[in-house]
Amino acid sequence: MRSYFNLFLTLVMPISILLTAVATVYFSMNYEFTKAIKLGILAGVMAGVAFSFVLSLVITIVRFIRLYNLKSKIKSEEYPMKSTPVKIDPTVYTKKHQKTQEILAAESKLESDSIEEKIMLLMDKELAYEVSLNSISHKNIGDIIHQNKNEGSILLRSKNEEIKILISSLTKHTSQVLITSTIDNSNMKNIIATLKEKEHSFMQY
What we know:
Layout: H1 2-28, H2 33-76, H3 92-112, E1 115-121, H4 125-139, E2 143-148, E3 153-158, E4 161-171, E5 174-181, H5 186-203
Helix pairs in contact: 1-2, 4-5
């Protein structure tokens, strides 16, 4: 709703001025100049408000539909993480503990000796998270060993490299992606390039 009103306020002034000028010229052919100006302002403002209302509504609906379709398309693409049946046995806790230790060790390694890249995306945090997962799958970069949508964090391993992606909100419609890697190689660059490519595709809508 806020985006609709912002668009409406952006359009109403120039459209009203344009229609006022046209209406004034039209009425000046049949009335004296002073009366033509009054009628032109009245008709131009009323027509401008009505036209801006309809045009803003149409543009907002079109944007919403395109954004919804884009999000649906991204979510429908296959991610590298697939759910598998969990067998309950006495070693479940041990395996979970070992996995937690692996995650903590990987994060500790990243913090001690790492290279960081920070980029801003013109999309919200949720969409940026989905796009990041899609980028990893699309480029076949490595295996995801931890992911948390609420925190916006993804941790993956590729050969001798650990990569951590942390996504946070800047504003309602923008987000920041912090990519941390133990090796400055093509994997980090591939992720950044794919994110920017998806952002450009998103902006086309």
